[in-house]
Amino acid sequence: MSERAVLEVIALDAEDAVAAQTGGADRLELVTDMAADGLTPSAGTFAEIRASVDISLRVMLRLENGFAAGDVGALVRAARELRGAGADAFVLGFLDADGGVDVAAVERIVAELDGCRWTFHRAIDRAADRDALRKQLADLPGLDTYLTAGSAAGVDDGLPTLLTEAARRGEPGYEPRLLVGGGLRLDHVPRLRAAGIDGFHIGGAARPGGWTRPVSAAAVREWRAALDA
C-alpha cells in the first residue's frame, strides 16, 4: 500500500478529461456512447482530448454493445486509425458464444497494436471460467491490466473474487494489475487497498449529475483523497 493507487476515470470528451485531471485522475478511459456501455471514440475526439490533458489515455476498442467482437476487420481499422492519431494504450475484450475468450479476435487486434499496452475489460466478469481466460491471454504482448468488478453484478457481489485474485498476483495469468470498477463505491476502498489492490476505475461516480452531465473535478478529488488516505 505504499505506492500511489491508480485512479482511472471514464471520459467522453475534452471537458471530462480536464475535470478528471484537475481532480487528480492518473489515467482516462476514452469512450463514446455510454448507452451501449462505452464504444470506440473517433480519432478526432482522441486528438482533442490528447491536446487537452497530459495524463495517460486508454482508448476503448469496441464497436457494438455486448461482448462479441463483431466485425474484427473494422476493429483493426479503428485501432490503426487511433494509433495514427497518437493513441498508445487501449481497452478491449471479447468472448465467444460459450463465454470463453475469443482468442482469435483478441490476437488479431493485439497484433495491430504492435506492443501497445492494453486492458482486458469487464468481459472477464461474464466469462465462463475466469482462470482459464487469464491463462489463455497470459502470453499476449502488452496486456497489463484487467478491469473487473469480480462479478457481472458488480463489486458488492464480486468482492470475494477480487480479494482471491489479488492474493494470487504474480502467478501465471495473474501478473496484470487489477483495476476495480463496476458498482465501485468509496466504502469498498479500504478493504480493497488492504488487500494490495492498487487500481480503481470510476464512471458514474465521477458524475454526480448523471451521464448527461460532465465529470466533476470535486467528485474525482474525493476519490483521490480516499485512495491516498
UniProtKB/TrEMBL annotation:
It comes from the Bacteria. One of its GO terms (molecular function) is copper ion binding. InterPro entries: CutC-like (IPR005627), CutC-like_dom_sf (IPR036822). It holds the Pfam family CutC. PANTHER family: COPPER HOMEOSTASIS PROTEIN CUTC (PTHR12598), COPPER HOMEOSTASIS PROTEIN CUTC HOMOLOG (PTHR12598:SF0). Belongs to the CutC family. This is Copper homeostasis protein cutC homolog. It comes from Streptomyces sporangiiformans.
